[in-house]
């Protein structure tokens, strides 16, 4: 006769083993149970709880080990092999492959416990980045704040770096000094003699790609999954789910009503004589939480958001972020105090970046926190690039103490002073093009505009489509005739001409309706700005596609040519990249030219709006 404790365990494991995540079975078999649970009758419920506690620590331990892999990579490839560039590339590969392997492996365990679309490996991340892209594309606030954050971070970081040089009397204690010899030891000295193009490509990679990978790894994946594996923040909800439930309820009343998004388990339904007290409920909830750790609290309407994380998880993620930087700073500066100071500062910076990402979340968020954090990170990396370039004397012009950046800046200031009108108009045009949204249209005018567009869609959907289909059939009948055109062929030709005239009439009607709709809102309205911006980006994308096609053919001819045998793989890759940059430049210039040819037509199509009409009325008086 099984004990009461074994009956409770059987009921829980049987309900977990059913396809829907719920179920009632008085005699569960070993095949019905998840692979992680194997009943041991002799040891009772305590064996299951020990197994659950062991499994509950395993995801957190795995995530901590994944968070320490960048530091281990720096030790292996940076300190032992003395190649920091190779260590960076391998670290980035681990930051992409590690989360992928973890998510696929961890989701394969959850798939047996849940029957939900959220059990796919990257479901949550797809929703999150979709919402971030939506916030970025909805308005210019994200772009403006990201650019401003990048500039402020770069400026502040550059000032701090200059203050830490050994030129001031008050900063001798914090003086960095020369670290050029350390750069030579750890493989960065070779950049001094490398081609300038390779140095520029590495700098762009470090400024653009490195922040994207690190922000995803440290602030998105690691913090989210650490919170996901933590039991403390979810024990209250699980205890509420496993509160004492009377077993006299009918079985149909115990069916889940919230869908498959949440694991709903009714305990004590397998046996009518079992009543779960509070102590047993806490034990079973601990066991179930260890088998299927719940996700962070995510709202149903906006499930892609990071909603709440414990402060401990945030600081652990920040500490792991600073763990590998302490090795890099210690190796390159050869100073343990600076390494410790850098660790403390980077932990604080990591916590700040987590705050930026988590503060711009929720259904009312309008900007992308991920873009803001990436912009701040990119600004810090820009300071590092200029510091390394200055230490290696890469940006210095031979025979002169001024750098290329300083020379370019001086030339730019001279041009602005000489041609201040053109420069001012150019800057104003850039600001208007990027941040200009047009004047707001009142609701009545907007309603008339949308009503006219609906009429355009109706005409285009019915009349135009019908005429095009008839014309297509008539042209086929006409072109399928023999060499000589008989009476039937002549009739088909006349039919084709009539249908072409009808098509022209419908197209003219559609164009007139579009003109009426555009003249309703005017040239300076938000609708005109959206149409102009859409035409620009369509031309821009066409130029990029043209450059991609040209580069494809250039690469094919390069590989088929006889000179490719004498070239190395790296030289061919760099040549292809350089060729793509040239093709992209030509393609974008052509796209801008094509866009400029369409601007007068777009302006004429909107006709006189509110401002133009007001000016014309005043001039007529």
TrEMBL record:
Transmembrane segments: 61-79, 85-105, 143-164, 194-213, 313-332, 338-357, 369-392, 420-441, 580-603
Keyword field contains Electron transport: no
Keywords: Membrane, Transmembrane, Transmembrane helix
UniProt superkingdom: Eukaryota
Ranges in coiled-coil conformation: none
Name of the protein this chain belongs to: Uncharacterized protein
Source species of the chain: Perkinsus olseni
């Amino acid at each position: 006769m099984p004990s009461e404790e074994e009956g409770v365990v059987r009921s829980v494991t049987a309900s977990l083993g059913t396809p829907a995540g719920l179920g009632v079975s008085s005699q569960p078999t070993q095949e019905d149970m998840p692979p992680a649970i194997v009943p041991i009758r002799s040891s009772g419920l305590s064996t299951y709880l020990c197994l659950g506690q062991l499994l509950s620590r395993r995801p957190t331990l795995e995530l901590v080990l994944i968070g320490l892999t960048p530091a281990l990579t720096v030790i292996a490839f940076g300190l032992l092999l003395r190649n920091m560039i190779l260590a960076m590339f391998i670290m980035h590969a681990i930051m992409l492959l590690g989360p992928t392997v973890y998510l696929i492996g961890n989701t394969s365990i959850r798939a047996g416990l849940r029957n939900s679309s959220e059990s796919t490996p990257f479901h949550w991340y797809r929703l999150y980045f979709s919402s971030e892209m939506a916030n970025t594309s909805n308005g210019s606030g994200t772009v403006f704040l990201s650019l401003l954050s990048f500039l402020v971070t770069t400026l502040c970081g550059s000032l701090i770096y200059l203050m830490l040089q050994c030129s001031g009397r008050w900063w001798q204690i914090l003086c960095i000094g020369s670290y050029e010899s350390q750069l030579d030891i750890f493989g960065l000295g070779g950049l001094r003699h490398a081609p300038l193009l390779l140095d520029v490509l590495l700098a762009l990679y470090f400024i653009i790609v490195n922040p994207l990978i690190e922000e995803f790894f440290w602030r998105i994946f690691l913090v989210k999954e650490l919170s996901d594996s933590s039991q403390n923040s979810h024990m209250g909800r699980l205890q509420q789910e496993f509160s004492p439930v009377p077993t006299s309820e009918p079985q149909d009343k115990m069916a889940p009503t919230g869908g498959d998004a949440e694991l709903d388990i009714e305990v004590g339904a397998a046996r009518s004589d079992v009543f779960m007290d509070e102590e047993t409920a806490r034990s079973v909830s601990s066991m179930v939480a260890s088998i299927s750790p719940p996700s962070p609290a995510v709202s149903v309407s906006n499930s892609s958001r990071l909603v709440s994380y414990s402060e401990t998880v945030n600081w652990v993620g920040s500490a792991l972020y600073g763990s590998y930087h302490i090795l890099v700073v210690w190796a390159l500066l050869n100073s343990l105090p600076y390494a410790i100071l850098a660790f403390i500062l980077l932990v604080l910076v990591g916590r700040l970046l987590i705050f930026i990402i988590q503060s711009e979340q929720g259904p009312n968020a309008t900007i992308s926190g991920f873009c803001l954090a990436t912009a701040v990170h990119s600004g810090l990396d820009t300071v590092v690039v200029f510091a390394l370039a200055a230490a290696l004397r890469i940006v210095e012009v031979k025979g002169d103490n001024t750098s290329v950046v300083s020379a370019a800046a001086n030339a730019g200031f001279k041009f602005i002073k000489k041609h201040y009108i053109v420069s001012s108009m150019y800057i104003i045009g850039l600001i208007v093009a990027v941040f200009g949204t047009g004047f707001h249209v009142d609701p009545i005018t907007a309603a008339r505009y949308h009503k006219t567009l609906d009429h355009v869609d109706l005409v285009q959907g019915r009349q135009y489509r019908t005429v095009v289909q008839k014309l297509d059939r008539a042209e086929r009948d006409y072109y399928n005739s023999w060499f000589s055109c008989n009476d039937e062929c002549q009739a088909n030709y006349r039919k084709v001409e009539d249908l072409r005239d009808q098509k022209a009439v419908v197209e003219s009607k559609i164009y007139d309706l579009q003109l009426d709709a555009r003249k309703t809102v005017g040239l300076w309205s938000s609708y005109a700005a959206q149409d102009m911006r859409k035409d620009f980006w369509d031309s821009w994308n066409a130029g990029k596609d043209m450059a991609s096609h040209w580069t494809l053919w250039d690469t094919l001819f390069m590989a088929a040519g006889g000179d490719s045998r004498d070239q190395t793989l790296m030289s061919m890759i760099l040549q292809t990249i350089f060729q793509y940059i040239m093709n992209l430049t030509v393609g974008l210039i052509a796209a801008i030219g094509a866009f400029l040819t369409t601007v007068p037509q777009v302006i004429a199509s909107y006709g006189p709006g509110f401002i133009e009409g007001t000016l014309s009325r005043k001039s007529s008086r």
